[in-house]
Amino acid sequence: ECYIEFLDGEKRWQNVLLQPIYDNQNQATHIIGKVTDIQAQKEEQLLWRELAQRDSLTKIYNSAACRDLINKFLEEEKHYKGRLAFIILDIDHFKEVNDTYGHLVGNELLIALAKYLLFHTNPNDIVIRMGGDEFVVFLKNVHDDLTYPCNQLMSHLNEISLSHHGIHFSISMGVYTFSNEQNFDNIFKIADDALYHSKRNGRNRYTIKYQK
Questions:
Q1: What is the largest CA-CA distance in the chain?
Q2: Of 44, 81, 91, 114, which one has the fewest beta carbons inside 10 Å?
Q3: The pLDDT value given to residue 165
Q4: CA dihedral sign, ordered 160, 163, 167, 172
Q5: What is residue 9's DSSP assignment?
Q6: Torsions phi, psi of 142, nearest 5?
Q7: What string of H, E and C letters represents the secondary structure of 70-114?
């Protein structure tokens, strides 16, 4: 399989089969081949791969994609100059929302929060639903002072409108900021510890841990 650019500038996936033709001295004198357009099959394959990485409810990346996407970035950008931030957040007392208003409203809140996180991050950042009401946000090229983006995420939740206008909710966040010399498991553990620190100290807050 190869990705071929044609004379008119169009690029398409092609399957190329080549067979050499030998003479009496066993020397290759010709090559015959067959080229088959596989653009449609490749697009379908890429679509299914993309769908497998997406959360069925919120349509953002799912937990299966989380490790792969971030490890890929860390591997391909070993000499990345900026600082990075890994955020784990969840909705405070989300079970009470489901118990009080029902799971349909709970799902509506999850979808709205996913859209909110996408809106308040840059297009090259990564937003993931890990499962339940837990989300991950991977920020690239952040400043040393992370209080501004954290305050932005925490303080504009009233922008989220739901069908039941009486719902009030908050989020807790754990944040780890680092340079690109880490592995995924270490990053996740430190951010997760920061999240539980926020929860133990009253929720509706964020805790930032810095790489030593």
A1: 87
A2: 81
A3: 78
A4: negative
A5: S
A6: -90, 160
A7: HHHHHHHCCCCCCEEEEEEEEECCHHHHHHHHCHHHHHHHHHHHH
From CA 129, how far away is CA 89, in angstroms rounded? 10
Contact 208, 146 (CB under 8 A): yes
Are 109 and 168 in contact, with CB atoms under 8 Å apart? Answer: no
Q: What's the rounded Cα separation, in Å, for the pair 72 and 12?
A: 25
Return the amino acid letter for 205: R
Mean pLDDT in order along the chain per 10 residues (212 residues): 73 82 85 80 64 88 92 83 92 95 95 96 95 96 87 92 88 93 90 97 96 83
What pLDDT is stored for residue 185 in this prediction?
92
Length of the chain as a residue count: 212
Residues 184/71, Cβ–Cβ less than 8 Å: yes
Question: What is d(CA 40, CA 183) in angstroms, rounded to the nearest whole number?
Answer: 37
Question: What is the DSSP code (8-state) at residue 38?
Answer: -
- The pLDDT, as a whole number, for residue 51 is 58
